[in-house]
Specification:
The complex is a heterodimer. The radius of gyration of chain A is 19 Å and the shape is globular. In chain A, the strands form 3 sheets. In chain A, strands 1-7 form a two-stranded antiparallel ribbon. The longest helix of chain A has 11 residues. Chain A contains 8 helices and 7 strands; from the N terminus they run H-H-E-H-E-H-H-E-E-H-E-E-H-E-H. Chain A has one domain: Alpha-Beta Plaits (2-Layer Sandwich), CATH 3.30.70. By secondary structure, chain A is α+β, with helices and mostly antiparallel strands. By secondary structure, chain B is α+β, with helices and mostly antiparallel strands. Among the domains of chain B are: 197 residues, Aldehyde ferredoxin oxidoreductase, N-terminal domain (Aldehyde Ferredoxin Oxidoreductase,  A, domain 1, 4-Layer Sandwich), CATH 3.60.9; 229 residues, Aldehyde Ferredoxin Oxidoreductase Protein, subunit A, domain 3 (Orthogonal Bundle), CATH 1.10.599.10. A 6-stranded mixed sheet of chain B has the order 2-1-6-3-4-5. A 6-stranded mixed sheet of chain B has the order 8-7-12-9-10-11, sandwiched between helices. Chain B is globular and about 60 Å long. The chains are: A alpha+beta, B alpha+beta. At the A-B interface, helix 3, strand 2, helix 4 and helix 7 of A face helix 3, helix 4, strand 13, helix 7 and strand 16 of B.
Chain lengths: 238, 703
């Protein structure tokens, strides 16, 4: 395996010093937690924040969605043993009645009260830079093989909700019973939501970058820590 | 961690007279009644005195769901509303209404299995429930508004995910024929006025919690997959309506209407429904389209179909969305609407003809206008009895004779005669506002309407076209669909029977030989069922079928499973010999809650719940003479317009003596007294209702 094969995004066109280091060393980037230890002995103590590309992505077709929310139920029942749409990693209910603009759209928006289009929201498994991972003060959002989904390491998560403030698509979820963040982990390659959809409105595909194609819901309000900002500088600053 | 899964754990209690809000422990107090109607009947029995008027502050209204609501068990989206029923004539008795939508699930996620509302607020209020935060809020700015505006304004205040169950002007004005509606168009008839009498405009609920599944999550997933594999289309019709490449059988009467080439044509772009091979669980949502089923025949329903919609967690999308662009310019109403069954053709059902024929565009437009008005004003059709009454009273000249000249002239009867949907803008708001004699009388419900206008109930009972049954309410899937079993079931409730267990079997579309075989396995003999329209005399197996149907209906209403879909004793699966599974309910219940009960044990709980309904009916009527005073059958059941004798091919009418035998056998199956039709003290005791028997005994109401 070529260490950088997943990182062929044109966004990372610059040759970066630590990337070169990695290339030379032949180490596959599997996540910041590992690399933080492995690589931070160089010029800085800042953690490396590049994550290996995800392998898969769930995509929803709103024109096929029938608003039954079986995806939300499958996500939480089959993974967590409880039916809890509020912590589902695929999100339909918030758009169901009035669409992404909420009740202020009245009957002029989307959803059951508007034009009837119901939009399921899904995690984009962002390419670098990954907003939720970068916002986490404890580096609790890590890459998990085999799908390389960005997942919450519950051991490290302290429940501060900074990740929720960082995702422009509002795709971070929170398990209020556990007091931990949670997010789409692609069910390790067999997404329950896709299996559960009775209308074939969800599909599981090879990853592609949709971060500039899916409209954002909110402006993120989290800030990146100075340590991580130093890493950005290290790689990107000429 | 709670001992059981499934239940949210709390019953929310609200006294609007005092403003007091408190909770009870669901499992501790109501576990033996499961939830839903079980909690409803128990609260009414324990806390609402006999002879309470529905609009008295002492009446209580119970919004209740069961342990399966909000889970991934298919078809769990219905909220049961129990109260004393304002349209039940000649005296109000206990009854239930059921609404789909998102309310049931949201209630569970907020942490409640039920809400019991009592008393009367000083001024209009709405109840805001966001998880543990429960508040009684001022609704004076919402009073006088339709359901749509009230819901939007409440959603602006507490968020777009809330499920808002609101009443319209009809409920505010204490119109007995009024509804409460959540999720745009999911209504429960009869309950609107009770909320109005409490000055309660709406209950809005949003929850961020969850429903814990007690059993192993992998096992739960497997059970859900199994249940899904047994589903048919709406009403559990298990064969397609037209030949399909995979299908051994088809039946044109099936609600499984999907087919290659049949599309949701008003979706942009159009969506093909396809062959819907039953093993493909990712196509279940395409099987049903009640626009095609109810707005047909032919393909006219497909033309206006946007998509399927329905309740939380249900893959059967029976509540369908339609788009009719012409109504926007012609009537000034939104071009998109949605509903199912009688709610869908609320407007159309008033008319007797249309300029472009019964299945033309105007008929569809009348559906749109009717839905738009009724679901905003909050008017109930009483399972289309409102419209049937209107037509009969119009045609026999009663309406014109009862209205003064001035009022009569205020209606554009020429529009009505022509079939102009804009006539509905004259009629429906006046029902909601109780304006004039016609509006006021129509809103009363059949029984009180006939009384007001001095029309003997017998006139309705002998005319099969009225579909009228008793107590102010119509038939619901009766002899025309399940012979004696249908008749028995229609005698048991205090409104239309709302039971589908029987019709979901007899009309499942399977060839008769297969139905016979399944019936033999389920109820002991193939003779439990007949060919519809070629009925045979009563036998004990039909009584068993009737009891089973009744118990399952009550069980579903308590567990929160949809009796418009269940039970699931037949399936579309050829390899199973088209068998379903009679134990689905108990498997779901046991795994979700951790309280292991097999099929028979759960049916016994259902019997306990129904016995409470029976006891309440007896207590409030003040007589044990159920057989003659309550379990009555309208004359039209025994009359055949063509004079065909009973039990001959081509008639669905019944024989008087045979039906008496049917009631005997039914009472025997229930272990009740034949002479009075009242449950015996032993029957109550067997069901664990000793104190109920004692109370009735004190009142001399035991046989």
């Amino acid at each position: 395996m070529t260490p950088f094969s997943p990182l062929d995004s044109t966004r990372l066109s610059q040759i970066l010093s630590r990337r070169q280091f990695l290339k030379l060393s032949g180490v596959s980037i599997v996540g910041i937690s590992v690399l933080g230890v492995l690589l931070c002995k160089g010029e800085t103590n800042a953690p490396l924040i590049i994550m290996e590309q995800a392998q898969g992505i769930i995509i929803a077709d709103p024109t096929l969605c029938v608003a039954c929310r079986r995806c939300e139920l499958a996500c939480t029942e089959f993974n967590d043993g409880k039916a809890s749409p509020a912590m589902s990693r695929i999100k339909v209910n918030r758009n169901l009645n009035f669409g992404p603009k909420g009740a202020y759209a009245g009957q002029h928006g989307q959803g059951t009260w508007g034009n009837e289009l119901v939009t399921p929201d899904f995690c984009l498994q962002c390419a670098h830079p990954v907003p939720c991972a970068n916002a986490c003060p404890n580096d609790a959002i890590v890459v998990k093989p085999p799908t390389n989904a960005r997942v919450v390491d519950v051991e490290k998560c302290i429940g501060c909700r900074m990740c929720q403030r960082s995702c422009p698509w509002e795709m971070m979820s929170f398990d209020s019973e556990a007091g931990k963040a949670t997010k789409c982990f692609l069910c390790d390659g067999k997404p329950k939501c896709v299996e559960a959809c009775p209308a074939e409105a969800l599909i599981y595909l090879a990853w592609r970058d949709l971060t500039d194609k899916v409209p954002i819901r909110v402006a993120p309000t989290s800030v990146i820590s100075p340590e991580k900002a130093a890493t950005c500088n290290e790689c990107h600053k000429k | 961690m709670a001992k059981y899964g499934g239940w949210a754990g709390k019953v929310l209690r609200v006294d609007l007279s005092t403003g007091r809000i408190w909770t009870e422990d669901t499992v501790e107090k109501y576990k033996d009644y499961l939830g839903g109607t079980g909690i409803g009947y128990r609260v009414i029995w324990d806390e609402v005195p006999a002879s309470t008027h529905p609009f008295d502050p002492a009446n209580k209204i119970i919004f209740a769901v069961g342990p399966l609501a909000g889970t991934g068990a298919p078809c769990n989206g219905r909220t049961a509303i129990t109260t004393l029923w304002p349209t039940c004539w000649p005296q109000p008795l206990v009854a239930t209404g059921h609404m789909g939508g998102q309310f049931a699930a949201e209630l569970k996620y907020a942490g409640y299995d039920a809400i019991v509302v009592e008393g009367k607020a000083e001024h209009p209020v709405w109840l805001s429930i966001v998880d543990k935060q429960v508040q009684i809020k001022d609704a004076r700015h919402l009073w006088g508004q339709g359901i749509r505006r009230a819901t939007i304004q409440i959603s602006e205040e507490i968020g777009p995910e809330a499920a808002v169950a609101a009443i319209g002007q009809a409920g505010e004005n204490l119109v007995p024929l009024s509804v409460v509606i959540n999720s745009f168009s999911h209504s429960a008839g009869g309950a609107g006025g009770v909320m109005g009498s409490k000055n309660l405009k709406a209950i809005a609920v949003h929850g961020t919690g969850g429903v814990r599944i007690f059993g192993d999550k992998a096992e739960w997933e497997k059970l859900i997959q199994y249940h899904l594999s047994l589903l048919g289309a709406n009403n559990q019709h298990v064969v397609p309506g037209s030949p399909q490449p995979w299908a051994e059988h088809y039946n044109p009467a099936s609600r499984w209407v999907a087919s290659r080439g049949r599309k949701w044509e008003a979706s942009t772009p159009a969506v093909e429904t396809g062959t819907c091979e039953p093993h493909n669980l990712n196509r279940i949502a395409y099987r049903t389209n009640n626009l095609a089923y109810f707005l047909g025949p032919g393909d006219i329903g497909w033309k206006y179909t946007v998509r399927g919609n329905g309740c939380t967690g249900c893959p059967i999308r029976c509540h369908n969305v339609l788009k009719v662009p012409s109504v926007s310019a012609k009537y000034g109403i939104p071009e998109v609407g949605q509903n199912t069954c009688a709610g869908l053709f609320f407007g159309r059902a008033f008319f007797q003809n249309f300029p472009d024929g019964p299945k033309g565009l105007t008929a569809i437009e009348s559906c749109m206008v009717g839905m738009h008005l009724a679901d905003d004003l909050g008017i109930w059709c009483n399972y289309s009895q409102l419209q049937r009454d209107f037509i009969k009273l119009y045609n026999n000249g009663t309406i014109k004779s009862k209205l003064g000249e001035k009022e009569s002239k205020s209606y554009s009867w020429d529009k009505y005669e022509k079939g102009d949907p804009s006539f509905l803008f004259e009629l429906l708001p006046r029902i909601a506002m109780k304006e004039g004699e016609l509006g006021t009388a129509l809103g009363l419900g059949t029984g009180y309407l006939l009384e007001r206008w001095s029309i003997p109930e017998e006139e309705w009972k002998k005319d099969s076209k009225t579909c009228y049954w008793k107590l102010g309410h119509p038939r619901h899937h009766t002899s025309d669909e399940a012979g004696q079993c249908g008749v028995i079931l229609n005698t048991q409730f205090n409104r239309d029977a709302q039971c589908h267990s029987h019709t979901n079997f007899t009309r499942n579309g399977l060839p008769f030989e297969i139905q016979k075989q399944l019936a033999a396995e389920l109820w002991g003999s193939p003779d439990a069922v007949d060919v519809i329209g070629a009925f045979k005399p009563m036998n004990v197996y039909k009584a068993r079928f009737a009891k089973w149907s009744l118990m399952r209906k009550e069980l579903h209403d308590a567990l929160s499973l949809c009796n418009y879909m269940g039970p699931w004793v037949a399936s579309p699966l050829k390899e199973r010999g088209y068998r379903g599974d009679d134990s689905i309910e108990s498997m779901l219940y046991s795994l979700a809650t951790g309280d292991r009960k097999d099929r028979q044990e759960l049916d016994q709980v259902a019997e306990r719940i129904f016995l409470l309904h029976r006891a309440l009916t007896i207590r409030d009527m003040g007589t044990k003479e159920m057989r003659t005073q309550h379990d009555t059958i309208p004359e039209w059941v025994f009359l055949d317009p063509a004079g065909k004798p009973p039990f001959t091919q081509g008639t669905v009418h019944m024989d008087r003596n045979d039906i008496q035998l049917a009631m005997d056998m039914y009472y025997d199956e229930m272990g009740w007294d034949r002479a009075t039709g009242a449950p015996t003290a032993a029957a109550y005791r067997r069901a664990g209702l000793r104190e109920v028997a004692e109370e009735l005994g004190k009142r001399g109401l035991l046989p």
